[in-house]
Amino acid sequence: MSLNAFITKETLDGSDDGPLAGKSVAVKDNISTEGLRTTCGSAMLEDYVPPYDATVVELLKDAGATIVGKANMDEFGMGTTTETSAFGPTKNPVDESRVPGGSSGGSAAAVAAGEADLALGTDTGGSIRCPAAFCGVVGIKPTYGLVSRYGLVAYANSLEQIGPIAPTVEGAAALLDVIAGPDDRDGTTRDAGTDSNYAAAADGDVEGLTIGVPTEFVEGADEGVEEAFWAALDELEAQGAEYREVSMPSVEKAVAAYYVIAMSEASSNLARFDGVRYGKSGGYDGNWNEAFARAREDGFGSEVKRRILLGTYALSAGYHDKYYAKAQDARAWVKQDFDEAFEDVDVVASPTMPVPPFELGESLDDPLQMYLADANTVPVNLANLPAISVPAGETDGLPVGLQLIGPKFGEETIVRAASAVEN
Amino acid sequence: MSDTPVDADEVRHVAELARVDLDEDEVEEFAARFADILGYFDALDEVPEVDREDELVNVMRPDEVRDGLTQEEALSNAAETEDGFFKGPRVS
């Protein structure tokens, strides 16, 4: 049976030479590819063919990579399981009765199943790290501003980054080396990443590394996940690292803050899909607003509508101070907690996901439960920090991911620490 | 529960603001879900005030003319065009 990892399977060849020559790469379907349809997992964009390449796609081609298709995803990146795709769910190659995680589930499944050597995903609240953990591969969410978002179909601009998924830490770091760096078409990019060599940092040397473990990230995790997590930390300790508990009280408010901010930004970003310039028009009668509203009723799935409506509500008169302004306070608090933690430790560690992969269909009926599964990943996006998910054993035959979070532009440190977990 | 319960009328109002039509089943379902989710968002009431130390700077570049999409490329995904323009529904 097919895993349904790809929405569009078509090959784009890169240049003849380069660091990724001979490598096949799956690209998440919210990243624009010139001449190759880019659907964002949505019926709204079923026939949309971008007239230009995203910066990361240009970089892939220049590096000699062969793009082998557009990977399945939760619609517009909204989901934790890749079940909200209008093109059907992707299956987890480790256990086909389970989800691959989301929203970059197609990217992670393609790599885990060997259907691509490498993949690009996007991470707004954990969407690279979650499927990497569920599929037993490596995923990196870069520091905000390290990788250009030009050509990424926006969901929540202040939170999302494009990043690599690979079978190994070194492979993920090498792909990050190709896509990192400033871009004059994305004003949020920084000079960091120019001439980077993150792959060289995958040397497994953790002698003297200090790891902070926030109790708030471990409490409430599934028992088998917690056992695998502590075993991985003991292994790092045996290699010369040391760990200590740290407290980050803010993270208990992070999920609420994340969803308020992400939904608010989504309600604004998705206003562009009007069925006139692009998107399904439906050809409805009536005035602009009526035709527009009908087209969006047809084109968007439930989770996307839910987030647009909740975001519109959170920004509406009378509720802005209660929800959006408070969420920004919580965001500053999370950032402050991380800043204080990094005064004492080099990296912060947690289970990537507090639970093993869900059964297909299990979480769809309860969106709030699905949102809570992101508790360990969303604080990283709120603080705009880098983080990696690396396989750290199993529970009942299902993969467990270890998340290592670094200070701003501390990609080398998390790559080094994660490579020791592979030893 | 939230202290701002959302009824079906309020869901219809927000859907109208967001320009998304909903069918009646969706209105009922969303009203029920919103109460749960907004109730959960009430946890933000306990967030303390935090000094924000971000030094925000505007990032500017010279406003120089450069190549963009051709008119044909810009129109390539439009359902309807006329004389090189996008054609939309009437505005009133």
From TrEMBL, chain A:
Segments of this protein annotated with the region Disordered = 80-107
Q: Which organism is it from?
A: Haloferax volcanii (strain ATCC 29605 / DSM 3757 / JCM 8879 / NBRC 14742 / NCIMB 2012 / VKM B-1768 / DS2)
- Keyword line: ATP-binding, Ligase, Nucleotide-binding, Protein biosynthesis, Transferase
Q: Which family does it belong to?
A: Belongs to the amidase family. GatA subfamily.
Q: What does this protein do?
A: Allows the formation of correctly charged Gln-tRNA(Gln) through the transamidation of misacylated Glu-tRNA(Gln) in organisms which lack glutaminyl-tRNA synthetase. The reaction takes place in the presence of glutamine and ATP through an activated gamma-phospho-Glu-tRNA(Gln).
Q: What is its EC number?
A: 6.3.5.7
Please indicate if the UniProt record lists Protein biosynthesis as a keyword.
yes
Coiled coil stretches, renumbered: none
Q: What is this protein called?
A: Glutamyl-tRNA(Gln) amidotransferase subunit A
Please give the superkingdom of this protein's source.
Answer: Archaea
Enzyme category, top tier? ligase
The record's GO molecular-function terms, alphabetically, read:
ATP binding; glutaminyl-tRNA synthase (glutamine-hydrolyzing) activity; transferase activity
- Active site (UniProt): 28 (charge relay system), 103 (charge relay system), 127 (acyl-ester intermediate)
> What Gene3D superfamilies would the database entry show?
Amidase signature (AS) domain
Q: Carries keyword Ion transport?
A: no
Summarize subunit and interaction data from the UniProt record for this chain. Heterotrimer of A, B and C subunits.
Q: Which reaction does it catalyse?
A: L-glutamyl-tRNA(Gln) + L-glutamine + ATP + H2O = L-glutaminyl-tRNA(Gln) + L-glutamate + ADP + phosphate + H(+)
Q: Residues in domain Amidase? A: 12-414
Q: Which NCBIfam families match?
A: gatA (TIGR00132)
- A Pfam family found in this protein is Amidase
Query: One GO term of the cellular component aspect?
Result: glutamyl-tRNA(Gln) amidotransferase complex
What's any GO biological process attached to this entry? Answer: translation
Task: Return the InterPro entries for the record.
Answer: Amidase, Amidase_CS, Amidase_dom, AS_sf, GatA
UniProtKB/TrEMBL annotation, chain B:
Q: Would the keyword Plastid turn up in this protein's UniProt record?
A: no
Q: Which GO terms describe its biological process?
A: glutaminyl-tRNAGln biosynthesis via transamidation; regulation of translational fidelity; translation
Taxonomically, which superkingdom?
Answer: Archaea
Q: What Enzyme Commission number(s) does the record list for this chain?
A: 6.3.5.-
Q: Name one GO molecular function term.
A: glutaminyl-tRNA synthase (glutamine-hydrolyzing) activity
Assembly, in brief, is: Heterotrimer of A, B and C subunits.
Family to which this protein belongs: Belongs to the GatC family.
Function, as annotated, reads:
Allows the formation of correctly charged Asn-tRNA(Asn) or Gln-tRNA(Gln) through the transamidation of misacylated Asp-tRNA(Asn) or Glu-tRNA(Gln) in organisms which lack either or both of asparaginyl-tRNA or glutaminyl-tRNA synthetases. The reaction takes place in the presence of glutamine and ATP through an activated phospho-Asp-tRNA(Asn) or phospho-Glu-tRNA(Gln).
Identification of the protein by name: Aspartyl/glutamyl-tRNA(Asn/Gln) amidotransferase subunit C
This chain is encoded by the gene named gatC
